[in-house]
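If you are new to this repository, start here. Below is one unmodified record pulled from the training split, so you can see the exact layout before writing a loader.
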Amino acid sequence: METSTRTEPRLNQNRTINHLLAAIKWVIGLFLEALPINVAATAAVLALRFWFDGQFTWRSFLLSVCVIFIFSNCIGMLIAVAISLGVPRLPSKRSLPGLLLLSLLISAASALGCVIASLLVVVLGFYPPEEFPAVASGSMKMAMLIGLIFGLSSFFYERLKSELEASQSQLSARKLEEERARKLALAAQLSSLESRLRPHLLFNTLNSISALIREDPEQAELMVERLSALLRFSLDSSERNTLPLADEVKIVRDYLKIERARFGGRLRFKIEIPDSLLMTEVPPFCLQTLVENSVKYAVSTKRAGAEIRVEAESDERSVKLSVSDDGPGFMADAIRAGHGLDNLQSRLSALYGDRATLDIRRDEHLMKVTVLIPLSAK
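And here is the target side for that same chain:
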């Protein structure tokens, strides 16, 4: 019991000290916020005084600076305190009664600050004690006028500033939500497109394997291993929008070997990718889709087969991937919606907008499909 009785006063004392320190910190912060306005008020009153007085001496100037600065800080601090403590308790600050009460509050703070400043200048010896009534009454009207001008101006400025900050905060939050929703929609779109692409690839590969099971079981087994690599690649890339070109080249090579097991000598290919581009980020299956398209329209349609050439080059802003073949070629309207190149075009648009392009053209005796991918995602 004695321990708890002794502890209670100590806790109360600590709370009192903490409250006092918080109050001092609040007053210092308020003073620093009001200081620029008080300095501006000092300069304004000083200019008015010498404008109307007309007499200027350095002694009177220095005396006026000190006195007016004391008045500005006393009045300005009380106005700041009155606004901080009183404004939240006023009725609607946009209504006429609210503005009238705010004006009365600022006027009362100005009058009290004027009295306190008059006492300070007398105590500090700027004026003799008997001149206190004259100093206080002589400065009261000017103090209340200047206090109203600067007090109301400061209040409306801070209110507009806080409303602007609140609007900007709401706008930023809205933009963040819109960006999050856009990314979620993009991820869903890419997931949908890729989910249609992979079964298509799997279906073609299984057809190739089934054709070899009876004729060449060992080759079929090797193709199953390569198919496993394809599926592993598909799973690894499922959570990524881009991957290194080296990974894409590897899967293209595996795919072409699978198809060559089916077509034999009819399928010939060359892959010419500079080592400097192997770490460039590209969308998964972008190059493989072009190769698969050549197998479909060139190799499988000609008895003699075709040669497929895979190339890449880049500049400072983009990388160009191209697949060409010496097959009969095809027209752009032959591309089926939701398959092959159409699927790739949709994925490129989802990732890069109009900064990525898919170009299909007949170049002399070669059919060439080119994808231009920007090096930056933005």
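Two things worth knowing about this chain: Helices lie at 2-53, 58-86, 96-123, 132-210, 217-236, 245-263, 286-299, 340-352. The mean pLDDT is 76.
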